[in-house]
Amino acid sequence: MNTKIIISIVVTVVLFCFHVAQGQQAIFLVRYGETVAPKGTDLRPLSEAGQRRAVLLATMLKDVGTNAIFTSDLERTIKTAEPLAHALEIEPKALWQLNTSFKQNDIDAFAALLRSEYRRDIVLVVGHANSVPALLKALGHSAEIKIPETEFDNLFVLIPMSEGPPKLLRLRF
Question: Which CATH number among 3.40.30.10, 3.40.1190.20, 2.40.110.20, 3.40.50.1240 corresponds to the domain 3-172?
Answer without folding.
Answer: 3.40.50.1240
